[in-house]
Amino acid sequence: MSRHLRIGTRASPLAIWQAEHVRDALLRHHPGITVEIVSMTTRGDTWLEDAPPHTWGGKGLFVKEIEDALLQGQVDLAVHSMKDVPAQQPDGLEIAAIMAREDVRDAFVSKAYPHPDALPEGARVGSSSLRRRAQLLRHHPHLRVEDLRGNVATRLRKLDEGQYDAVILAAAGLKRLGLQDRITHLLDIDHSLPAVGQGAIGIETRSDDTVMRGRLVPLADADTQSCVLAERSMNQVLGGDCRLPVAAVAEWRGTRIHLRGLVATPDGRRILRAEAEGRDPAALGRTVAEALVAQGAAQIIQDIRCS
Q1: Which pairs with CB-CB distance under 8 Å and at least 24 residues apart come from 161-166?
Q2: pLDDT in tens, 49-60
Q3: How far apart are CA 224 and CA 132, in angstroms?
Q4: pLDDT, mean of residues 131-141
Q5: b/e 288-305 (16+ beta carbons within 10 angstroms → b)
Q6: H helices of the chain, where?
Q7: Which of 24, 102, 147, 202 is the most buried (most CB within 10 A)?
Q8: Calpha distance 85→99 (Å, rounded)
Q9: What is the pTM of this model?
Q10: Cα separation of 274 and 15, whole Å?
Q11: Stretch among 1-10, 70-79, 167-176, 206-215 having the lowest mean pLDDT
């Protein structure tokens, strides 16, 4: 049994924070081990400055290189933002643990305006997420939603330089980086339903590595895992990914999971919603996905992919 573990991660500041968070948790629960963080650049990182994510082809653009390293034995586990993880894992890999979730909400960040309702006609809002774009335009069709690329620090710098009147970012990332003071207003999930898996950190291992899976048991949060599984089940049925205007969030209500799902056209003119409750996360996700498909979700997704 190896006492030295290697964590694979993206090289962005937020990804490094997440890997360090996992490292620290491992060291608390297994004080006799040593942990090394191995950072690497993914295709998504390479393309992040060149084109908005919804124009990219393929899946797993922020995880593939890390998963390849895991399969080849170059690292022992991989740490991901669950919103970046495709609904289907490669053969030989599995998400062994999902840690307790941070704030799932989107954050409105602006130097001049307290919330989206205060933005004047034609105000420039930065976001490259079709999901955020669609929901923002649904409530505020008078705004100009423009592409915003780069890591968190780069996006905030562009706002500070006056390239945008406001930007929309994940609250979890800002809080984890100690930038919660930059949050001007937290968007209610009725206004901006989060991405599938938003705010959750997942730890991926090789399927045959029973020792590593055992080490990760104390890091897992059962409630978060059930909620994220429901969201990902919905997404898998829809064939969605992080580039599409698909949203979902699940929460426990007593002994049952409540799941809300959304599919939208990029302009926000058509937004489909469905919700349900249940105890089986996978079945619940399928139920919500089927309700969205019955409203026309599959055609919306197909039209976006063909555009």
Answers
A1: 163/124, 163/126, 164/124, 164/125, 164/126, 165/110, 165/112, 165/113, 165/119, 165/123, 165/124, 165/125, 166/108, 166/109, 166/110, 166/113, 166/116, 166/119, 166/123, 166/124, 166/125, 166/126
A2: 555 555 545 456
A3: 23
A4: 97
A5: bbebbbeeebbebbeebe
A6: 13-29, 43-47, 64-71, 130-139, 152-160, 171-176, 210-216, 222-238, 281-295, 297-306
A7: 202
A8: 15
A9: 0.93
A10: 32
A11: 1-10
Bridge partners for 108 per DSSP: 168, 185
- Tokens representing 150? 């780069």
| Dihedral angle sign, alpha carbons of residues 31, 36, 41, 42 | negative
Count CB atoms within 10 A of the CB of residue 20: 15
pLDDT of residue 251: 98
> HSE of 235 in the Cβ direction (CA atoms, 13 Å)?
29
Spell out the residues 6+ positions from residue 4 whose beta carbon is closer than 8 angstroms to its own: 33, 34, 35, 36
d(CA 90, CA 105): 29
Contacts with 289 (C-beta within 8 Å, 6 or more apart), sequence order: 233, 234, 235, 236, 237, 238, 261, 297
Amino acid at 160: D
Q: Hey, what domains does the chain have and what are their CATH numbers?
A: 1-99+199-220 (3.40.190.10), 106-186 (3.40.190.10), 221-307 (3.30.160.40)
Give per-residue pLDDT as tens, 16-33. Answer: 999 999 999 999 999 999
Give which of 63, 67, 84 is closest to 76, Cα–Cα: 67
Report the chain's terminal Cα–Cα distance, integer Å.
51
- Per-residue pLDDT for 44 more than 80? no
Find residue 277's DSSP bridge partners: 258
246-291, pLDDT tens digit by residue? 999 999 999 999 999 999 999 999 999 999 999 999 999 999 999 9
Which of the residues are catalytic?
A: 84
